[in-house]
Specification:
With 151 residues, the chain is an alpha+beta fold. The chain contains 2 helices and 6 strands; from the N terminus they run αββαββββ. Strands 2-1-6-5-4-3 form a 6-stranded mixed β-sheet, covered by helices on one side.
Length: 151
């Protein structure tokens, strides 16, 4: 009986180790995809490159502060064009502080952002949460929620 309990315990411990190893591999893959997307995001924005929309799912929503949600490719395209045309924001950066996922096809990124004007001076900074979704195209932004620190 003791041997049976010992074997069950070993199986339980080993299966937990394997599951944790799989989650760690999953998080490593997700973090790499997010880092790559964040690296090119403002490069695409600075060029007014419409392919920035490929970072988002077709049914993505941008959830800006003090404004209605902006959902779907057409609405996102209009928002990016309007923001670019306004000419205030010329570049920016994202800094990921954490990524959370249980391997079920979604991941949440937590971080901070900064945006700069044409003169390179900081315009605003804040924090964000992005919900990423695994699609046939890879990891894409499904929900993008952000707010300012009130600079």
């Amino acid at each position: 009986m003791k041997r049976y309990i010992f074997l069950l315990l070993v199986v339980f411990i080993c299966s937990n180790c394997i599951a944790q190893n799989n989650i760690n591999k999953h998080l490593t893959t997700v973090k790499k995809a997010i880092a790559k997307a964040n690296t090119i995001y403002f490069d695409l924005y600075a060029k007014n490159d419409g392919s920035i929309l490929h970072l988002y799912t077709a049914d993505a929503c941008l959830l800006p502060p003090n404004a209605p949600a902006i959902c779907g490719s057409e609405a996102l395209a209009k928002d990016f064009k309007d923001t670019y045309a306004a000419g205030v924001v010329k570049s920016g950066s994202f800094t990921t502080s954490a990524v959370y996922s249980n391997g079920a096809g979604y991941a949440t990124e937590e971080g901070s952002w900064q945006v700069f004007g044409a003169d390179g001076k900081l315009i605003d900074k804040g924090k964000y949460l992005k919900l990423w979704k695994k699609t046939k195209e890879g990891w894409q932004i499904y929900r993008d929620l952000f707010n300012s620190d009130g600079r």
